[in-house]
From TrEMBL:
Keyword set, alphabetical order: Membrane, Protein transport, Repeat, Transmembrane, Transmembrane helix, Transport
Gene Ontology BP terms: NLS-bearing protein import into nucleus
Organism: Trichinella nativa
Stretches forming ARM repeats: 338-381, 381-408, 508-546, 592-620
Name of protein: Importin subunit alpha-4
Pfam families named in the record: Abhydrolase_3 (PF07859), Arm (PF00514), Arm_3 (PF16186), IBB (PF01749)
Transmembrane segments: 6-23
Length: 1142
């Protein structure tokens, strides 16, 4: 075996050498939160800096500009002017802003809580010589590299950005520009990161992680020539499966999956707008600074209440001008000053129209701020008065009231419904009938958009029925802004389910929407495409209405459109058509669109390729053999196989599913299809996917290979030969009484080879190898095909959430995986946690805590506590879980973390108590490594793959950040001198407490050994720390009920019993469950081992009974807990007797 590995290593070295001769030197640019433009200082990330952390130590916009001016040798007095973009010539503005278009950003960057559409730039560019110098520097591409015209010759790039950084958006813009130029650019974004976090990486774990990510990327990119797809830390990925679903279900799932994809960022229909009234009379900087200090605001407040109408009007105007500042208006300062009630009072009917207008304007700008600021306006009683102003004879007052109400409605469905309840709709729609200025009508259309916008919950059917007649009129309006807003409003209504879709269809607007697909303006096309695209997500009958309007005739032009977003949306539209019935699939074929879709699948931007993959795969589901055969004749197989190396999990899964469906329909032509797959390189990709980290993908890849590409005789011969070799080289007999001994004897030699982890590279080897081996368990019979899962984060800690389709309880499980604090993760434990969720019928959360040695103690403890506290405090709400019915469960090292976290949870008085703690063969102490169960391991199954003392000690030392050279001394109890100083704690684990069948006479507590005081001093801070050794904690009172599972063939057997006994002594309800033929780690192979499978079912039933979902179940649980006590064990009866009794 050593010679074999040496040969492989030699081949690898030669391969690297040959690659260095054949390929030129790789070049790479790495940009870490870079500053790359000085054009736009109102990007969403700059706005977030102004609003959310402008006064913190994080870099603020003013500092960034000041530093750059100093760097360029320019006067810092220009900072305010640069921040206003006064150095940008309006003639060049449109050209320059092409590089920083906000609608290119990801949807999550356009958070309406801080982002507002910047107003049009006024022509106030300073023409002084000094500003010309500033302009010549800041707009030069050598200072603002984002403005470089030609980037095609640049090397590939990695750009790292952070959420809390004013420079976040320009980093993304730079990636976008590079990709437009054909440069291979990768992007890593940290959703909880901040600017300069890498500078303090020793104190900030995310900074350390970022350095590791960058280093890994550099190694992969330069050494192997690979590239990475975009990675967003804290990304939730949803997995969708199409098999077994009818067309309607598929279309609805497709709609859910595509929500973010379809959600374009449209500046003209932002949920709020802030008014910037363009007048020649504006307050200067000096006046602003006076007004914005405390005395100035107090003076405004006093004058706004003056009985003198002129003084009052001037004061309200001053407040309005402050709020009209285009940068960081002092909204909160004015609210705190107490001016809101005064401004609201100025809206009253007894006041002059001028005062009403100025007050409405000021309140409009306050309502354009954050949700809290909008709420303050509403709670001050402004809405009823705004509604009264809609009846004002003065048009400017009416318009300002409409604008203010639009900002309030745009804050969300709560205020939308409040305004509807007060009767906004009828007076608002009256303005459509009246002769109003076009600017006023545009605002009315914008408010209607906000009334239609939200879908959680959507507007009521009555509201929609009132709005649709007006929209049916406005959809024919010649003004571009009104038309765009109207079509977007219809698109929002069609995004609310089949009932709303039918209401829009009944309004008779579908033919006009289809006609607008051919409009000359891209904005109108995009909105119309979204609206008709939403309609075809409905039923087959609703989809047919769109097809009857000849919508497919517009598709060739849209698929060839110069805008990639139009291409993407058009293919998404077609993917929902191909998810319909067979006649609708045939309509797409008859329109000649399949060859174009195949072409886009093979070569287009990634988002369009992803939609094309869905469109093609849906044909294989909704169509029949004839339609699929047509696609094959058009060359769909090579195009599909070209996407099998995508880094997007959904794309790969959809393509594999499509290929599998094609092969199933091929019949006698199956060999032709398999040959095509092999000829275009698809077979190699499918073989590689057998080791994919996603369970669905590698199962599907295995299924395809096994069914269509495997020579069974050759495969069985190889397997038989390898089995004989392993049996010969690595056979060690296992104990006779071990459960499922025959099955385990086959797997055990391989586990033994893979599990050794003594150094960094061996840890990596063990993790990857054991993870792959764990998939054997997932290939076996699944107990949980009815469980959906997705990844998320709880207070920054990664978690995986499992939701059974059938819920038996409103309780939840929180699972902490094992692996000696060094191995495994939520993916390795996916089969076990998935089956737990299915068996218990409860929402299950699996915590993916940080592993050692990269993250040493107490990192894992902190992660588990943070995730659990978040879940109990707020995370349960989104999952609709009862926080009073939560069980914490873990195995091995996870059992340790369950015990520690449960004890630590006592500090939080505001949190609900856990209903149950479940510890499965837990590690709980390191004081005594010569307990009977440790000694049994040495005597009966040393040299096997069952958990043995050396591996455990090595893992624990890694977890504590200590040198593994102490392993042998630790196993000899060379730290035993600690017992003399901590005799009371040792009494907790005295061998005399064990059942008679455990405490064999040959095992003595105080076996003589060489004492090592250095080791004792090294271990002392940890061994008696309850955050590491929960068994030795002094106070265990008031803990939740416990189920402790131990196994006979496990070195941790005795400490599980010791902990159960200690909990019992502290009046904690305990059930100790001992499996006499079980072994450590058996539940990781529960789908292969009958004992583990049966015990998992029993454990799940017990958890269900304890958690309970009714009074009867709770009573049953109380009875069970009262029966399952340690009374018998304390009298030294054998576990077998107790098992029979219970």
């Amino acid at each position: 075996l050593s010679i074999y590995l040496l040969i492989i290593l030699q081949i690898f070295i030669y391969a690297i050498y040959i690659r260095s001769l054949l390929f030129p030197m790789e070049q790479l640019q790495v940009l870490i939160y870079p500053v790359v433009q000085f054009v736009d200082f109102m990007t969403p990330s700059y706005q977030m800096a102004y609003r959310l952390y402008g006064r913190t130590a994080l870099p603020d916009p003013e500092s960034i500009v000041r530093w750059m001016l100093v760097y360029l040798g320019l006067d810092v007095e220009h900072v305010p002017k640069v921040l206003r973009s006064d150095h940008v010539d309006p003639i060049r503005q449109l050209q320059l802003l092409q590089a920083v278009q906000h609608d290119q950003l990801p949807p999550e960057f356009l958070d309406p809580s801080y982002y507002k559409k910047p107003p049009p730039k006024l022509n106030n560019t300073e023409s002084s010589e000094a500003m010309h110098q500033v302009q010549s520097y800041l707009l030069d591409w050598q200072v603002s590299p984002l403005l470089q015209q030609d980037m095609s010759d640049l090397p590939k790039a990695l750009v790292l950005t952070c959420e809390f950084d004013p420079l976040r958006d320009e980093g993304y813009f730079y990636v976008h520009r590079l990709r437009q130029a054909g440069v291979n650019a990768s992007w890593i974004h940290y959703n909880t990161g901040f600017h300069a976090m890498l500078n303090i990486h020793n104190e900030v774990p995310l900074g350390r992680q970022a350095i590791q990510d960058v280093a890994t990327f550099i190694q992969i990119s330069l050494f192997f020539g690979f590239t990475m797809s975009d990675h967003v830390n804290n990304t939730r990925i949803l997995h969708f499966k199409n098999k077994g679903r009818n067309a309607d279900e598929l279309r609805r799932r497709r709609t859910d999956m595509s929500f973010e994809l379809r959600k374009s960022k449209r500046e003209d229909t932002l949920s709020k707008k802030r008014s910037i009234h363009v007048q020649s009379v504006e307050i200067d900087e000096a006046t602003t600074s006076v007004l914005r200090d405390g005395n100035g605001l107090l003076m405004i407040l006093q004058n706004a209440q003056s009985p003198d109408p002129i003084v009052q009007l001037n004061a309200v105007q001053q407040a309005r001008k402050l709020l009209s500042s285009d940068r960081n208006p002092p909204i909160d300062d004015l609210i705190r000053s107490g001016i809101l009630p005064v401004l609201v009072n100025c809206l009253g009917p007894h006041n002059s129209p001028e005062l009403q207008f100025e007050a409405a304007w000021a309140l409009t700008n306050i309502a354009s701020g954050t949700s809290e600021q909008t709420k303050a306006v509403v709670h001050s009683g402004a809405v009823p008065l705004f509604l009264q102003l809609l009846q004002s004879p003065h048009m400017n007052v009416c318009e300002q009231a409409v604008w203010a109400l639009g900002n309030i409605i745009g804050d969300g469905p709560h205020f939308r419904d409040y305004c509807i309840e007060l009767g906004i709709i009828d007076p608002l729609l009256e303005f459509i009938k009246r002769e109003v200025p076009i600017g006023f009508l545009r605002n009315v259309a914008w408010v209607i958009v906000n009334l239609c916008r939200s879908k959680e919950p959507p507007p009521s059917a009555l509201t929609i029925s009132k709005l649709l007649p007006a929209l049916s009129v406005l959809v024919h309006h010649p003004d571009m802004s009104v038309l765009v807003d109207t079509v977007w409003a219809l698109s929002y209504l069609t995004d609310g389910g089949n009932d709303q879709i039918q209401m829009v269809i009944d309004a008779g607007v579908v033919p006009k929407l289809v006609q607008l697909l051919n409009h000359r303006e891209v904005k109108v096309q995009a909105a119309a495409l979204r609206a008709v695209g939403n309609i075809v997500t409905g039923s087959d009958e609703q989809t047919q209405v769109v097809l009857n309007c000849e919508a497919l005739s517009y598709m060739p032009e849209l698929l060839a459109h110069q805008k990639e977003k139009i291409n993407k949306e058009a293919v998404w539209f077609l993917s929902n058509i191909t998810a319909g019935n067979r006649e609708q699939v045939q309509a797409v074929i008859n329109a000649g669109l399949i060859p174009t879709i195949i072409k886009l699948l093979e070569k287009s931007d990634f988002a369009t390729q992803k939609e094309a993959a869905w469109a093609i795969s849906n044909v294989t589901i909704s169509g029949q053999r004839e339609e699929v055969a047509f696609m094959v004749s058009q060359g769909v197989i090579p195009a599909m196989c070209s996407q099998l190396n995508s880094r997007d999990v959904q794309v790969v899964q959809v393509i594999l599913d499509g290929l599998n469906n094609i092969l199933k329909m091929a019949g006698d032509e199956v060999e032709v299809i398999t040959q095509q797959i092999e000829d275009c390189g698809g077979l190699d990709h499918i073989e590689t996917l057998q080791t994919h980290e996603n369970e669905e993908i590698y199962k599907l890849a295995y299924e395809i290979l096994d069914k269509y590409f495997t020579d069974d005789d050759d495969l069985m011969g190889v397997i038989f030969s390898l089995t004989c070799l392993f049996a010969y080289w690595f056979y060690r007999p296992l104990p006779n009484r071990l459960a499922d001994r025959n099955v385990l004897q086959i797997i055990e030699p391989l586990i033994k080879i893979l599990s050794y982890a003594g150094s960094d590279w061996q840890i990596y080897w063990a993790r990857k190898s054991l993870h792959t081996l764990a998939r054997l368990n997932t290939w076996a019979h699944s107990m949980s095909s009815d469980v959906e899962s997705f990844d998320s984060q709880f207070d920054g800690v990664p978690v995986r959430i499992y939701i059974p389709k059938t819920l038996h309880s409103d309780g939840a499980l929180v699972f902490i995986h094992g692996g000696g604090f060094v191995l495994f993760d939520v993916e390795t434990y996916d089969a076990l946690t998935r089956d737990l969720a299915s068996e218990t019928g409860m929402v299950t959360v699996s915590i993916n805590y940080r592993l050692a040695p990269e993250n040493i103690f107490p990192a894992a403890v902190e992660d588990c506590e943070r995730a659990l506290v978040h879940f109990l405090r707020e995370g349960y709400q989104a999952l609709r879980v009862n926080p009073l019915k939560v069980a914490l469960i873990g195995d091995s090292a996870g059992g340790n973390l369950v015990a520690v976290t449960t004890q630590r949870l006592q500090r939080f008085r505001d949190l609900p108590s856990l209903k149950l703690q479940v510890l499965i063969y837990p590690f709980l102490q390191l004081l005594d490594l010569k307990t009977p169960s440790y000694r049994t391991a040495l005597n009966e199954y040393a040299g096997t793959a069952l958990l043995e003392p050396e591996s455990l000690a090595r893992y624990i030392l890694m977890y504590l950040g200590l040198d593994t050279k102490h392993t042998e001394a630790l196993l000899k109890n060379s730290h035993w001198s600690l017992v003399d100083r901590y005799g009371e704690q040792y009494g907790y684990i005295s061998h005399s407490h064990l059942p008679k069948s455990f405490a064999l006479e040959a095992f003595s507590n105080a076996e003589s050994c060489v004492q090592d005081e250095n080791l004792a001093a090294l271990m002392e801070p940890y061994i008696f720390d309850p955050n590491f050794s929960p068994l030795l904690s002094e106070n265990l009172t008031n803990l939740p009920p416990a189920l402790i599972v131990t196994c006979e063939y496990d070195i941790l057997r005795d400490e599980g019993f010791f902990y159960a006994k200690r909990l019992k002594e502290h009046n904690v309800d305990v059930f100790w469950w001992h499996l006499e033929d079980g072994f450590h780690g058996m539940f990781n192979m529960h789908r292969l081992l009958s004992l583990a499978r049966a015990q998992l079912t029993k454990m799940s039933a017990f958890i269900r009974a304890v958690i309970g979902n009714s009074k009867t179940e709770s009573e049953v649980a109380t009875i069970m807990m009262s029966r399952f006590t340690l009374t018998d064990q304390l009298h030294n009866k054998s576990p077998r007797q107790v098992e029979q009794k219970t």
